[in-house]
UniProtKB/TrEMBL annotation:
Xref: SUPFAM superfamilies: ARM repeat
Domain (AP-5 complex subunit zeta-1 ARM repeats): residue spans on this chain: 321-438
Organism per entry: Enhydra lutris kenyoni (northern sea otter)
Pfam families: SPG48 (PF14764), TPR_AP5Z1 (PF25153), TPR_AP5Z1_C (PF25154)
Domain AP-5 complex subunit zeta-1 N-terminal TPR: 1-280
Signal peptide: none
Protein name stated in the entry: AP-5 complex subunit zeta-1
Domain AP-5 complex subunit zeta-1 C-terminal TPR, chain residue ranges per copy: 450-798
Gene Ontology CC annotations of this record: AP-5 adaptor complex
Amino acid sequence: MFTAGAESLLHQAREIQDEELQKFCSRVAKLLQKDDPGPDAVDALQRLFLIVSATKYKRRLEKTCVDLLQTTLCSPKCPEQLQLLCAAILRERSPSDDLSLSCDHVQSSQQLSLVALVLLAQGDRKEEVRSVGQRAFRVLESRQPEGPSLRHLLPVVSKVTRLAPHSIHEDQTSLLSKRLVDWLRYASIQQGVPHASGGFFSTPRARQPGPVTEVDGAVATDFFTVLSTGQHFTEDQWLNVQAFSMLRAWLLASSPQGPSALDSDDKSELEGSTLSVLSATSTASHLLPPQERLREKAFEYCQRLVEQSTRRALRKGDADLQKACLVEAVLVLDVLCRQDPSFLYRTLSCLKALHTRLCGDLARARALLPIAQFFLRHGEAAAVDSEAILQHLFTRVPCELFHSPTLAFEFVRFCGDSLPLFGKNPDILKQSFPNLFKLLAWNSPPLTSEFVELLPWLVDPGTAVEMLHALLDLPCLTAALDLQLRLSPAVSERPLWDASLRNPSCLEASRDPQFQALLQHLLRAKASGTVERLAPLHQLLQPMASCARVAQCAEAVPTLLQAFFSAVTQFADGVLANQLALLLLERCDSLYQVPQYEARVHRVLSSQFLALCALHPSLVVELAKELLEFVGSVSSVRSRGAMLASVAWAIGEYLSVSWDRRCTVEQINRFFEALEALLFELTQSRPSATLPECPPQVIAVLMTTLTKLASRSQDLIPRVSLFLSKMRTLVQSPALSSMHREEGAAAVRTRATELLTLLKMPSVAQFVFTPSAELSEPRYHRDANTALPLALRMVSRLVEKEMGLLPG
């Protein structure tokens, strides 16, 4: 991340002790007390800034040094470089209790911007934001619009507006609105004069500057905007650029209802028939109040930017600026239409034409997002159907531009910000989750948290099963997207892929028709309502599993699964719970083989299987056939041990008449025999390639489940007692002890002893292992005089006596 030299400097700065730092502060203080500090003071302040900024914790500085830093910052005669360094050091120490800095007497806007940098970092503990704002407006009032140093003031005003919009008075709002109108609409259209170098060849007869030009090189014939170009710029042209950068925030903050009112009360609910009348009877611009006049000029400015965006830029930097300004212009138009519906009629034709033009230009796809949001918000009032615009956006953009990290982030943020607007038409968003998952698969680290918040809005009973399959196949989707890019013709902005796989073996095999259908299903744009078994595709794409991007995506899946199940359990009925539980059993052995991915996913699936059983206990009886098939195989005990333990625990907990009246003794006996055979095979056979070592946790759960089942069908008690006795003896043998660590073998032996002791009293065992529903109430666990604590104490004493811990 840093060069070796930079790392060395940072290390030295972090290692400086307090005593050495105080000596250095004394040296800095002496330098600052000189009439002419000079380059030595600059060098010392640069070193001090490195020291205070190199660590996360606040470094203690001498009070004398801190006072001199503040004095130097506020001194009007101090060089700008020294003031900037003093402000940076003081800001690194914020918030600070020993700061006595004030902006009340600062006259220079440049100096005020540096003082504000420190005060606004204090956190408004002493109303610093309000004092900075008031001082900034007083300086603004004292200067003419063409003042030479207002460029430093606007960023301060913009930040105060965001932090404390209600601290600005009405007359100050009107003042700034008037100034913004002047800067936006009446900036000079002549280029600025270059600064004279003062050299031998400089003469006062230099060529006069020409007019500003458009991005395509044509001479500008309309007013100046941020997209106007030239060699040099005048002061009011720089103010024009700054004014546009803060325009949207100022329109929101200076609205009479405040910045948050637009989100809760959309003014565009007026009838569409009145819009043309309102727009046709507009008042003369100069007679309007300042706020309304600013809106009018902002509308003209945005229309001019939309027109300028149609020009072909000569430089790439100008082309990028066109895209950014187009997005901002549409966002400003959205705010204007929300504040004043009379703008809606004039904006519709402009944005419709813009959308038609952008649909064929994917290089400017970013601008489609605010356009879609505009029509989502205003489509009903303007009698415009936004569905076609959304269908194009959700179908084409993620498919073709998933590899653009900036667009991916903005697309997902657009979805999150527009959730309230999707209220009447949520199907487009929900049906498009396969396309949205492409953004997630390719950009999983930065987008994981956004999708955790978005998933509850995407999933519903109709898409839950298909979405769970898609989440489990997300790393495979990443590999398929990588393969798709490698097979596609050259594109202008081809993303980088893992160089270690220059020509993966699956590149040619993927063209085989038998894999094309599976690839098309995995890369589908919308929910299909069908599920395909992708095991052949997993094998085909296995060479891609070592790609770093695939590994990153695999790390994000467990978090996404947790978010998915948190949402699903809020509405899942018995039918959906059964479908999801069955899916978990099926997909245990059908995951894309990425290192450590299977183990991580199994941990989540096992916990969520238990959550589904707790939500609908009857699924154990309803899925009896599938559960018996699952526990009947020990071929993958090592990989799915967590899932096997959860299934066994759920069988022992919920296979009971108390949970489902359909449970029969025959079912209990069948499960007992299957689990008994499984446990026997796991413990009697030595580990091999086909029968791996079984974790002691799984053995303990299986023994407990067998005991629970025997307590409900007491004819099985002699069988399980004999088995547990053998287990207690077997686990002490060297053959089995070598399979497990000492603590694992001891845990299995202890559990077998406890279960044997309980089975000696069948009625107590049934009471402990199958308590009635009312025993789950807290009072049965808190009150020492109720039956359950008494029974547990009696059982504990019997177990301790059996183990020889008490004399007997």
